[in-house]
Amino acid sequence: MYICKKILSKNMKSFFKIVFAVVIGMFFTFFLFFIFLIGVAASSGESKPSVASNSILELNLNGTISDFPVSNPFSDFSLFNPSINTEEQIGLFELKSTIEKAKSDKNIKGILLRTDGISAGISTIFEIKHILEDFKKSGKFIIAYTEGQAQGSYLVNTVADKIYMNPMGMMELKGLGTEIMYLKGLMDKLGVEPMIFYAGEFKSATEPYRLTQMSEENRVQMTALLSDIYSNYLLSVAKSRNLSTEELRRIIDNLSAVEPEQALSNKLIDGIKYYDEVLTELAKKVNTKDVNDLKFATYKDYKTTYGNQSNSKDKIAVLFAEGEIVDGKGESGQIASEKYVEYLKDIKKDKNVKALVLRVNSPGGSAYASEQIWREIENIKKERKIPVVVSMGDLAASGGYYISAPADYIVAEENTITGSIGVFGMMFNTEKMFREKAGITFDRVKTAPYADFGNGNRPWSDREKEVMTNSINRTYSIFKGKVVKGRKLPQAQVDSIARGRVWSGEDAKDLGLVDAYGNIDVAIQKASELAKLKDPSLATYPGKKSYFENLIEDFEQTKTQQAIKNTLGSDYELYKSFTYLRNMEGVQARLPFTLVIE
Fold it and tell me: Which of 204, 393, 516, 523 fits a disulfide with 592 by CB distance 3.0 to 4.6 angstroms?
C-alpha cells in the first residue's frame, strides 16, 4: 500500500509538472503572439495619417531630446501597464526635418508649443530655437503655452509670437550655476584610499575624490565656461523679448519674474491665461468659430525621418556618435568601439560614399576605445581619400575631441563644450574599509612581485604608482599628438590649450580647436564643397532599428533605467556618474562634469 501511494504521489507530481509546463508554455506563446500583433500594428503604422486642412502642429517637447531619434518599444503598452515607460524620446534632427516639413505644408497654419518638461543639452536648446526661428520665416504663427518653465524651456519659448502662462504657473529665471559633490571626507571616514593619476591640471574629473572643494584651476575654467554660455543666453532672450541685456540681467539677479504677474509686468510673457483661453485664441488664428472644431496634428503622428530626398548615387555618410565612449559592444546610447569601428568599415567599403560627416555629442570615455575609432577614421581618409567633417553638438570633449581630431574641418556651436584634452585613471584601495568596518581581511600567494598589480584590496607600491603615472603621461602625450597632427597646430600651442581644460565652442574657435560655428547642415554643406558634390544623398549611421530589434535589445535596460530615473529625479545624473566610475576600466579621456540648463 505504501509503495502504491508512493508511485501515485510520484505520478501526481509528474502530472502537475507537465500541466505547469504546458500552462507556462501557453502563456509565453500568447505573450509572443501579443508582441507580434503589437509589432505588426507598429509596422503598419509607418504610414502617417493625412493632415486635415487648417491644422495646428501640437509640438510637445516634454521629455529628453537627443541627437538621433530613439524609439521606445514600450510606447504601445501603456493601456496594459501604466507603470511602463511609454515616453518617446525625441531626436533633434528628426525634429528639425518635421518642422521643415510643417513650414512648407499648406495644411499646417501654425504651432502650439509646449516645452515645460524639456530636457536637453545647452547647444540643443539653442538649436531648437533656431529651427523654430526658421519656421517663422514662412509667416506662420507660434503660440507657446506654459504651466511652469525653467530656463531652458523659456529660451525655446521666446521664439513664439506670444507666450502665455497659466495663472498658477511659475518661472525659474535665476542664472546659471553648477554644484559638485566632493566625496573625500566620506572616503576618509570609510577608510577608502583613492589612488588617482591624471595629466593636465584642469582635468578635474578626479577632484571629488581627492579634494573637499574646487581647485583654483577648475573654478577658473567653470567660471569662464558658464560666463560664455550665460552671455549667449542673455543676448538670445533679450533680443527675442525686446529687452536690453542689462535689464534682463537685473530681473534675473533679483528673482523678479517668478510669479506670472511679475513675468508679465517685466515683459517676459504676453499674457496669463488658462489653456481653454489659449484654445480660443488659436481658433481666432485659424478662423474657426468653435474651439471644438480646432484640428491638431500631434508631433508623433506628423514626424518624419531625418535626411534629404535626393536620388543621387553620390552619398555623404552621416555617422551619429552620441553618448559615452566605451570598449567592446556597449549598450544602447553608448559609443561602443566595436560597433563604431564596424560602422566606419561599412562606410569605407561603400564606393558611393564621397564624404563623411561625424556628428559628435559625447563627454568622452575610454581612451583605448577612442583610439580605435580614431584609427578607423584615419583609415577612411588614407584609403578612400574622402573628406571628413565633424559636427559638434552639446559635448565633444576629451574622448569626444579625440575622435574629432582627424577631421579635415570641425564645425561647433558657440555653446558646445569641447576641449578637455587630458586623461586620468583611478583605483580605490578598500583594504582598510573591509578590515575596520566589516572585519574582512585578505591574503594572497604570488609567483612574481606584481602578479596582483591593479588589486584594489591593498596599498600600491611606489613602483606600481610609477608604472600607472607613466601610462597616464604616455596616453596624454599620444592624445596631444593626435591634436597636433589633425589640427596642424604647433606642439607648444597644443600644450598650452590642452592641460585638461574645458572650452566653450566660442573659445575653441579662437584657439584653433574648431574651424567654424554652425549646426550639422553647415557641416554637411562643407563636406559637399570639399568633395565637390552637387545635391548628394545622405546615408545615416547607425541605421534605424526595427520594432523587434528595439524590443529585444532594450527591454530590461529601458525598464530598469526608467525606474531608477523616476526614483532619483534630478539626482539621476549623479547616479550615472557613479555607475560610470564603477564600470570604468583603463585610462579615461572624459569630461569631468555634466552641464544642463534648468
Answer: 204
- Report the percent of the chain where pLDDT is more than 90: 70
- Cβ neighbours for 308, distance < 8 A, ≥ 6 positions apart: 535, 537, 538
Average pLDDT, rounded, for the chain = 86
CB-CB neighbours of 106 under 10 Å: 8
For residues 395 and 412, what is the distance between their CA atoms, to the nearest angstrom?
Answer: 9
Dist CA 478 CA 480 (whole Å): 5
Distance between CA atoms of residues 228 and 511, nearest Å: 15
In the numeric block, which cell numbers belong to residue 231? 552671455
Grid cell 524620446 is found at 89
Cβ neighbour number for residue 250 with a 10 Å cutoff: 13
Phi and psi (nearest 5°) for 168?
A: -100, 10
Per the CB < 8 A criterion, the answer to whether 371 and 589 are in contact is no
pTM for the model stands at: 0.85
For residue 509, what are the β-bridge partners? none
User: Are 538 and 524 within 8 A, CB to CB?
Assistant: yes
Give mean pLDDT, residues 4-26: 50
Taking the CA atoms of the chain, what radius of gyration do you get in angstroms?
Answer: 28
16: Cβ–Cβ under 8 A, 6 or more apart, which residues? none
424, 479 contact by CB (below 8 A): no
Which CATH code, of 3.90.226.10, 3.40.50.1970, 3.90.70.10, 3.40.640.10, is assigned to 55-174+255-302?
Answer: 3.90.226.10
Determine whether 210 is exposed, middle or buried from the number of CB atoms within 10 Å of its CB (0-12, 13-18, 19+): middle
Please identify every residue annotated as catalytic.
Answer: 203, 398
Q: What are 195's three cell numbers?
A: 589612488
Q: What is the mean pLDDT of residues 3-31?
A: 51
Q: Which amino acid is at 492?
A: A
Between 1.10.287.1700, 3.20.20.70, 3.30.365.10, 3.90.226.10, what CATH number should domain 315-423+490-590 receive? 3.90.226.10
Q: What is the DSSP string of 550-574?
A: HHHHHHHHHHHHHHHHHHHGGGHHH
How does strand 537-541 pair with strand 315-322? parallel
